[in-house]
Amino acid sequence: MAQRPTMHDVAAKAGVSQAVVSLVLGGRYAGRASERTAERIREAADALGYRRNLQAKTLKTGVAEIIGLVGDEVATSPFSGQMIKGAQDLAWGEGNTLMTVDTGGDAALEAAAIETMLSHQVRGILYTAMYHRELEVPRAALETRAVTLNARDLTGSTPSVVPDEEKGGYDATRLLLEAGHTRIGMINIQPEEAIPAARDRRRGYQRALAEAGLPSSPELIIAGEGIHRSGDEGARALLALEEPVTAIFCGNDRTALGAYQALDELGLRIPEDISIVGFDDQDVLRDFFHPPLTTVQLPFLAMGEQAAALVLDPAAAAETHIIPCPVIHRGSVAPPKGR
């Protein structure tokens, strides 16, 4: 087997010292080597097939150019995978690799994953949740730089990156109010509101109504479970009221899909008869909506980028970073019928 080329070989081919090669390939040559020299060194390294010995660098610095990401079901979730992409893109742009472990909620696997990452001397760990919730970061993860992604760290030990669920619910409702609706129902995604997404989206809905001088009647809020059936049953209940709604804010897109089906079976058109706004902007559901669903997007890509930037910044404070959820305007909102 041919011997792997060394930094000494690169230096000999480029006609420079090994120290200069180390500076250039390590990206630390500003003011010490010209761009022309740096390019000659890179060309020599490419021609020889030279690869930097990152293990040796880790032994020298005590830190690997790796960021760990530990999640419950993030990698297997079709819509939260954007968090991984955002973190990976930022990490790669800063010269780091992302090491990802999806634990499936298995506590033993999670502990083993964190231990493995610590043994690799990662630069930090992104402790990640599939859905926005409140949790305590495992003590082992705090042995390195840790950032909580899509969750709030109840201990206050780490920076947290979360979506602005309340402002998203507020903006969704404001959109319907601005279209002229005054009878707006909501189908939420969890009866007990044990997760921030359910609680805060409902709070945003109620705040928008209050600012418009409209009551938030209990009959207008359906608890729901965040599933297709909840949207179907919730829409039927809201339309069966003595004074039916003219618009519905659905707590997520799966709920909205169920509402679409109910309205179709009742012979009602979207948005001519009823306006609908969803939440999440799930890629896997997008093509099932006719007309296309106006929804609020969970900013997973931006959240992943922000979390990776924070894990690379040891000076960042342990505070919560709230990322805006933009409204995606499509074709499911119109003024109330007759206006």
From TrEMBL:
Pfam families: LacI (PF00356), Peripla_BP_3 (PF13377)
Location of the HTH lacI-type domain: 5-61
InterPro entries recorded: HTH_LacI, LacI/GalR-like_sensor, Lambda_DNA-bd_dom_sf, Peripla_BP_I
Source organism: Brachybacterium faecium (strain ATCC 43885 / DSM 4810 / JCM 11609 / LMG 19847 / NBRC 14762 / NCIMB 9860 / 6-10)
Protein name as it appears in the record: Transcriptional regulator
Record GO terms (molecular function): DNA-binding transcription factor activity; transcription cis-regulatory region binding
Keywords: DNA-binding, Repressor, Transcription, Transcription regulation
Alphabetical list of PROSITE patterns matching this protein: HTH_LACI_2 (PS50932)
